[in-house]
Specification:
This protein is mainly alpha-helical. Helices cover 78% and strands 0% of the residues. It has helices at 9-27, 30-37, 41-48, 51-75, 81-97, 106-112, 119-140, 147-169, 174-202. Residues 6-66 form the HTH tetR-type domain.
């Protein structure tokens, strides 16, 4: 429309997402967000509804960007839960090693800042973590183990994912991160093996 600045909402979201990812919620001021996205304050409020609403939309965009990769990795080994978890962690490590994106994980960083987030945004972060947990739990469903064990392993794997992101932000080397992922895979394999043996003994 003549007289109005046109912009690509998707591109603006991507730029804002990078700011939240790099700086965290507190340091992502409206001025910094606007400069990165090429928008004025009025456009941010008019298009996204303000900083909190923009933040939640960036969280959703981040989650959607990587969700497909996680699901492909997990689904590729639907009959082998241990291999599925290994593939999931490989995707996590690949994201961390990608030089084209900020270090760490936007969801992990946001979870660490939950105390300063508004109630709706704090709940949104928790929802995304729950979605991740359910995704991992689904990949474990083929294992012969008590459902409570599988529930605990799903939480454990999500915790490892978040820990890898935090460690990467702190400067941990690729070798250190891969060591953590390798030990996580071993823990999952050993836990499932013990669970299967226990169930067989109880038959």
């Amino acid at each position: 429309m003549s007289g109005r600045k046109q912009f690509d909402v998707g591109v603006a979201l991507d730029q804002a997402m990078r700011v939240f990812w790099q700086r965290g919620y507190t340091d992502a001021s409206l001025d910094v967000l606007g400069a990165a996205a090429g928008l004025g304050r009025g456009s941010i409020y008019g298009t996204f509804g303000g900083k909190d609403a923009l933040f939640r939309q960036c969280l959703d965009r981040y989650a959607a960007t990587y969700a497909a990769q996680y699901e492909v990795a997990l689904a590729a080994h639907s009959d082998d839960p241990v291999r599925a978890i290994e593939a999931f962690l490989d995707v996590v490590l690949a994201r961390i090693a990608d030089p084209s994106v900020p270090t760490g994980c936007l969801i992990a960083q946001s979870a660490a800042q939950s105390a300063i987030l508004g109630e709706e945004s704090r709940g949104h972060v928790r929802t995304l973590l729950d979605i991740q947990r359910r995704r991992v739990r689904g990949a474990l469903a083929a294992a012969s183990a008590d459902p409570r064990v599988l529930d605990e392993l799903a939480v454990f794997v999500v915790a490892i994912n978040q820990s890898l992101a935090v460690l990467s932000r702190a400067g941990a080397s690729d070798a250190e991160l891969r060591s953590v992922a390798r030990l996580a895979r071993t823990t999952v394999a050993d836990t499932l093996a013990r669970a299967a043996t226990g169930e067989a003994a109880g038959d």
